[in-house]
Amino acid sequence: MPPLDEFGLIRVWTEGRQSKEMLAKAGVTLGIGDDAAVVAGSSGQEWLFAMDTMVEEIHFRNETMSESDVGYKALAANISDIAAMGGMPKFALVSVSVPPQWDSNRMKQLYDGVYMCAEKYGVAVIGGDTTSAPRHLVVSVTVIGSIEAGKAIRRSGAKAGQFVFLTGPTGLSAGGLHGLLKKPADEGGPDSVPVPPHRLVQAHQRPSPSVKAGRILLEQGWGASLNDVSDGVASEAWEIAEASHVKLVLKETHLPLSGELVAYARDNGIHPLDWVLYGGEDYVLLGTADKRHELAMKEHFRAEGIPLFIIGEVEAGQPEVILETSAGASKPIHKRGYNHFPKGYNE
């Protein structure tokens, strides 16, 4: 078997294990392969199921996240998957595997963050599991949401002629993480960097899932395809391109650049586009929509106080993502972002 990345491995591990007939009989409308699974409900509704796991030293460290930050972000990441389908988050199951150094007080603070996020987004925490762990903390969260039957916005709805949009700037979380992992300049040291702006740190530690934006896109019928930016714009754009069998052309001059991010990146000798395209964990929405909706979308999002950036267009062709640079050149954007199993893992 040739080397596979994380997503290829998921397909190998899960594809074809259960028949379409069996899944349909169980009420599964959409199974593995999108931001959330869709399952038949009642009274014109369907259920959305999403699960994410955070592992100490992989997703967070003591120097990057407080205990309450970990709990907050673990739930927020799952809520974002529900938002990416246009749904409403309803319930959460929280499971923790706790190592010895995470005493009762630290775990209470973690749950403080979970419940703070739950209250903000109207999610009822209804159960989970608790076990011991030998070395590192593991937090797994399942969020169950609801959505109007047949209305879930999938990654596979992009069509040639549509435009590509973002519901907020990206790269902020990556910039915040960069600063948190380095020793601030005012503390000295060979690896010191300028202190990251608070907005960047907040974006990394306390992300804001785009539930309202997702609901607008569903209720107005504007969202043709949708994905949340968890692994980076490049990775999410590739997922839409592959699921929809189209080419996405992004325009460098249209990508939203936060002034704080640009200044901080340049102070650190980093091109801000690296964080914008490949940073991840921003949890804004990336999607496509018909061009006839562009003006209405801009006006509606402006009235709601939600950013909307038109960053490219969809073209017919083999699945790929292209960047039109500010210099007028076109270059491929590689499917790069955070990957738990880089190619070669299974060699």
UniProtKB/TrEMBL annotation:
Locate the residues binding Mg(2+) 3.
35, 81, 228
Q: What is its EC number?
A: 2.7.4.16
Q: What else is known?
A: Reaction mechanism of ThiL seems to utilize a direct, inline transfer of the gamma-phosphate of ATP to TMP rather than a phosphorylated enzyme intermediate.
In this chain, Mg(2+) 1 is annotated as bound at 52, 129
Family designation: Belongs to the thiamine-monophosphate kinase family.
Described function: Catalyzes the ATP-dependent phosphorylation of thiamine-monophosphate (TMP) to form thiamine-pyrophosphate (TPP), the active form of vitamin B1.
Annotated positions binding substrate: 59, 281, 338
Q: Which residues bind Mg(2+) 4?
A: 35, 81
> What name goes with this protein?
Thiamine-monophosphate kinase
**PANTHER family per the UniProt record, alphabetical:** THIAMINE-MONOPHOSPHATE KINASE
Q: What is this enzyme's class at the first EC digit?
A: transferase
Catalyses: thiamine phosphate + ATP = thiamine diphosphate + ADP
Q: Does the keyword Secreted apply?
A: no
- Detail which positions bind ATP: 111, 128-129, 155, 230
InterPro entries documented for this protein:
PurM-like_C_sf, PurM-like_N, PurM-like_N_sf, ThiL-like
Q: Which organism is it from?
A: Cohnella silvisoli
Pfam families reported for this sequence: AIRS
Q: What positions does the entry give for Mg(2+) 2 binding?
A: 52, 81
Q: Which residues form the PurM-like N-terminal domain?
A: 33-146
